[in-house]
Structure to design on (1055 residues):
């Protein structure tokens, strides 16, 4: 291992890897330090039982950014996004008619027409209007958040994009961002399953219900990643979300970044003369000297644990301590003896059921999503949690033995701070999944539950929050992670934050890694 | 036939204020009101001989000092008395009391937390600073953000400058205050549960949101805005009840030559080639005027008094999407004696201010959960006043009247539930039971009870869904988006038709700004000819 380099990329998540790849590509010497041995952070697999493993990161997090994937040529390193079709199938708790939403707009309209002709007639206009707003957000995501002191040059692209949106579009955007997603969808549609299908995934990993103001903004953000076309919002990688980490690691390595994975991770960030970042100290006591440290661990881990409150201005520390994390989702992996049959499937050949290739959402009405979220407010586990289920083994070998299958579930409304909740979570997850797959309980041979507490202790997510900070309006854009420090720089010269704790939230898209790398690159040039 | 320069629809406080300003500027003005009395939701009546209650609104929250001066309301009998103190009784026998006098507040807070007692004045100072930044916006017409007209671009630029002038730090803090939930925001400041609960409750009054819903924190500012106007005008109580506010406004309007016709409900707004021409009354009578101002809510104005065909499709869609959600009710009581609170027994200063039943945030949040699924709260938030302690003329000697604002009472009840008419008594019982948990003698001293559900509020005042603010005070329905993007300056797609009620910027409360801004817009247009 080298004892000095230009940049140490720590935290180990997809954004640190993406930033490392970008910086190595532009000729800097980069050392990637994984916190848990294997870099990838949440973009990694967890073992369920011998031969069975499942991806830790939810499939319904905002998807990987195509621009980042293209620039890093991730397809060359095996990253492939699946146009699963239907993209999402919704089933109510207790069963009922499943509603599958096809990915292609025309097919989607036909499917919607079967539950509401009025909604089907409105869908294209909805898709067009919201697509345009999401497209604007996408332009905003191309650079760190603007602030009052942003230069004209920085402001120009956003201003041009706003101009393109037009007066009416801009007013619409300002109206939609602070709305509740329930109100937004009520403006357009009447059908419960359609509204639940559109709203549900946007709430992934948050404690929020569809009545919470600002969730319409999350819906827009959700569509701004991936391709800003409606229904392109969930693009699971082949091999599961862990494939993102693998491809990024390969890309960074190919670009020349070096990896340190023996030391057991970072112990602290070292400061040099003038309080500048000067290197890191590893868990085994070795040190690495560098000019720049970039971390995609949470603001709490990076600033309060690794840097130390004493090194930072008191006001900044006050702000950093007040960030709300509120992890509220568990991941559950189930080892299955075979793929289960959908409740309405007649024949016993689930392999040919295209719905099993996409995401299956348990929770088919707005009120059901809301009730589930209510429980988490009071630190209770929802009786009937909203569940997003995915079978990664359908698309890739290696996650389950021949003939077997793996179900990866994101279970919403499992609040942080409840110890020993695994059994309860598992029981409720299987009961919820039973609404879609009546035989599921008999097929489970082994299970692994990762409640927020385990996501924190095992994967470095503060309070088990996938977003590393609740994505509410008061913690987004220029206010994320700390007002005045939204552009990836920190009060410590040479220390940069990336990752979902910065804008934008969501830890699988690589956008903040790219933007942070740009900030580092600019400063290193000076 | 008589023709007016201006005609104002609706005799609530905003309609009266608009009419008074129009009359004051020399416009020949007629105000028409469907009820036999003016006042709208600013109204008092006897619920039992000798017992007068403010039926709907019960405090003069933010009535702009400029309006009081311009219309010379004191001369017309308006007497405001400050409300001192908020008393939050708890079930464990403790109580939190906050007063104008910082020393007394500190004393009470010290029983809960030294840290909070120290931080409370700092919090007040911070809120004062932010109120100052926001106050100007209340009496300003919002620019049309996104419009390319030079005037609007300048307006938008001035708005940006106004905020930029705060500097990065304060701007960020203000942005947080505007977007955070009351509950989360207060977590940044305090640890005392009843303090956080009582403060955050003010963020949800009249809205269909919970204290942990993002966007509820900024209402905290309203309380400090009032104080900026001078203590005497903060959350004031009107002598004689709220009806006397209406009487003073009507008196002022008449003194400026405004003609007021009651019992004159409007059936339709008359238009002529896309311009407002007057109104047709319920009895078929046509009245013509150059300008029409409507203080009714946007749904009533545009969807009932006009034919949607007369309006641009996009505008009709925006108005249909404008949300008015009734979420509150009211219970008015005639009492044989004073209520006796377990937490602070006997009479005392604590009964002369607001009594807030907001023991902890979980109770408030659960109250909201009930409403979300279409039922009234089983344990509602109550904001209680005993006006007869401030104005003995409201009740016979030794007797009292009590005003109880209740949240949540959703206008739309769930499908399974019986309608409001069948639930009114249950609702009243729930309110009394909730309050009796703190003041056990209450059920025994009630002489008369008036229960107003959101449906009753709608029926009696005309407020759609009984929404007291003529539209949810969500961020997406405020400022340049109220009531619709591009139409926040009181003008409407119909030339000569203006909004002058709470459905226009800056929204609800007995503050009068929409009435004044509406009249301003009408006068400006009249000058332009």
């Amino acid at each position: 291992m080298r004892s000095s380099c230009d940049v140490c990329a720590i935290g180990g998540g997809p954004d640190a890897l993406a930033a490392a790849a970008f910086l190595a590509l532009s000729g800097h010497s980069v050392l990637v330090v994984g916190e848990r041995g294997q870099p990838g952070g949440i973009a990694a697999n967890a073992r369920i039982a011998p031969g069975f493993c499942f991806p830790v990161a939810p499939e319904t997090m905002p998807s990987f950014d195509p621009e980042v994937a293209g620039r890093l040529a991730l397809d060359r390193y095996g990253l492939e996004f699946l146009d699963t079709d239907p993209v999402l199938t919704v089933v109510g708790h207790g069963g009922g008619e499943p509603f599958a939403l096809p990915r292609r707009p025309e097919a989607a309209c036909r499917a919607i027409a079967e539950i509401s002709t009025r909604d089907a007639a409105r869908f294209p206009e909805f898709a067009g209007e919201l697509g345009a707003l999401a497209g604007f957000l996408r332009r905003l995501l191309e650079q760190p958040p603007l602030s009052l002191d942003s230069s004209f040059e920085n402001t120009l692209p956003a201003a041009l994009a706003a101009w393109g949106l037009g007066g009416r579009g801009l007013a619409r955007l300002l109206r939609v961002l602070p709305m509740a997603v329930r109100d937004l969808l009520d403006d357009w549609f009447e059908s419960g399953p359609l509204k639940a299908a559109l709203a549900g995934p946007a709430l992934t990993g948050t404690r929020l219900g569809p009545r919470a103001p600002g969730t319409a903004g999350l819906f827009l953000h959700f569509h701004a990643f991936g391709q800003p076309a409606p229904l392109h919002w969930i693009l699971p990688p082949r091999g599961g979300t862990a494939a993102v980490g693998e491809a990024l690691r390969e890309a960074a390595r190919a670009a020349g970044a070096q990896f340190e994975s023996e030391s057991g991770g970072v112990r602290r960030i070292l400061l040099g003369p003038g309080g500048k970042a000067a290197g890191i100290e590893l868990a085994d006591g070795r040190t690495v000297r560098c000019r720049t440290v970039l971390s995609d661990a949470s603001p709490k881990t990076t600033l309060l644990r690794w840097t130390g409150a004493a090194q930072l201005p008191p006001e900044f520390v006050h702000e950093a301590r007040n960030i709300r994390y509120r992890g509220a989702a568990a991941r559950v992996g189930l080892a299955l003896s075979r793929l289960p049959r959908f409740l309405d499937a007649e024949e016993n050949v689930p392999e040919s059921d295209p719905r099993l290739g996409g995401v299956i959402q348990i929770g088919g009405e707005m009120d059901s999503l809301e009730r589930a979220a209510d429980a988490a407010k009071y630190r209770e586990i929802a009786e009937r949690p909203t569940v997003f289920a995915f079978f990664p083994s359908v698309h890739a070998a290696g996650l389950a033995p021949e003939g077997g299958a793996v179900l990866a579930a994101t279970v919403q409304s499992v609040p942080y701070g409840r110890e020993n909740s695994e059994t309860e979570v598992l029981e409720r997850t299987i009961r919820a999944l039973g609404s879609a797959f009546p035989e599921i309980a008999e097929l489970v041979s082994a299970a692994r539950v990762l409640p927020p507490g385990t996501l924190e202790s095992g994967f470095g997510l503060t309070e088990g929050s996938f977003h590393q900070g609740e994505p509410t309006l008061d913690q987004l854009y220029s206010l994320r992670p700390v007002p005045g420090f939204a552009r990836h720089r920190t009060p410590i010269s040479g220390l940069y934050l990336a990752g979902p704790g910065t804008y934008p939230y969501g830890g699988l898209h690589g956008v903040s890694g790219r933007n942070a790398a740009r900030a580092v690159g600019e400063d290193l040039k000076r | 036939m008589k023709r007016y320069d201006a005609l104002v629809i609706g005799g609530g406080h905003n309609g009266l204020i608009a009419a008074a300003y129009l009359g004051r500027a020399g416009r020949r003005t007629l105000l028409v009101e469907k009820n036999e009395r003016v006042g709208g939701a600013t109204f008092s009546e006897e619920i039992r001989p000798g017992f007068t209650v403010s039926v709907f609104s019960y405090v003069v929250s933010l009535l702009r000092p400029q309006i009081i001066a311009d219309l010379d309301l004191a001369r017309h009998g308006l007497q405001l008395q400050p409300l001192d103190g908020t008393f939050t009784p708890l079930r464990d026998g403790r109580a939190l009391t906050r007063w104008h006098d910082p020393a007394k507040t500190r004393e009470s807070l010290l029983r809960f937390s030294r840290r909070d007692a120290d931080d409370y004045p700092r919090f007040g100072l911070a809120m004062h600073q932010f109120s100052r930044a926001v106050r100007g916006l209340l009496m300003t017409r919002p620019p049309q953000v996104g419009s390319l007209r030079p005037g609007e671009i300048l307006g938008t630029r001035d708005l940006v400058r106004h905020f930029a002038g705060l500097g990065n730090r304060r701007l960020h803090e203000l942005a947080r205050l505007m977007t955070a939930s009351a509950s989360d925001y207060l977590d940044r400041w305090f640890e005392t549960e009843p303090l956080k609960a009582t403060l955050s409750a003010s963020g949800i009054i009249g809205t269909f949101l919970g204290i942990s819903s993002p966007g509820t924190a900024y209402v905290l500012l309203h309380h400090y805005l009032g104080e900026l106007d001078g203590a005497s005008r903060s959350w004031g109580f009107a002598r004689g009840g709220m009806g006397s506010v209406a009487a003073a406004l009507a008196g002022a309007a008449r003194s400026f030559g405004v003609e007021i016709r009651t019992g004159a409900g409007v059936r339709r707004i008359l238009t002529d080639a896309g311009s407002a021409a007057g109104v047709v009354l319920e009895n078929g009578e046509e009245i013509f005027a150059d300008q029409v101002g409507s203080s009714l809510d946007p749904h009533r104005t545009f969807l009932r008094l006009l034919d949607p065909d007369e309006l641009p499709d996009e505008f009709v869609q925006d108005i249909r999407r404008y949300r008015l959600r009734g979420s509150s009710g009211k219970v008015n009581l005639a009492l044989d004696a004073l209520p006796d609170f377990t937490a602070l027994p006997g009479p005392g200063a604590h009964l002369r201010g607001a009594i807030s039943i907001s023991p902890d945030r979980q109770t408030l949040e659960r109250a909201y959960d009930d409403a979300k699924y279409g039922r009234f709260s089983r344990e509602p938030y109550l904001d209680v006043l005993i006006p007869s302690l401030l104005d003995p003329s409201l009740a016979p000697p030794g007797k009292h009247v009590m005003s109880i604002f209740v949240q949540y009472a959703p206008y739309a009840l769930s499908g399974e539930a019986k309608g409001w008419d069948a639930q009114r008594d249950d609702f009243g019982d729930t309110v009394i039971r909730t309050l009796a948990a703190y003041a056990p003698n209450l059920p025994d001293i009630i002489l008369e009870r008036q229960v107003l559900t959101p449906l009753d509020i709608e029926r009696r005042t005309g407020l759609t869904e009984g929404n007291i603010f003529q539209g949810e005070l969500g961020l997406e329905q405020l400022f340049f988006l109220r009531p619709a993007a591009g139409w926040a300056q009181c003008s409407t797609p119909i030339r000569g038709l203006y909004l002058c009620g709470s459905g226009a910027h800056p929204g609800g409360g007995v503050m009068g700004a929409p009435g004044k801004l509406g009249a301003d817009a009408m006068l400006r247009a009249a000058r332009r000819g």
About this structure: The mean pLDDT of chain B is 92. The longest strand of chain B covers residues 286-294.
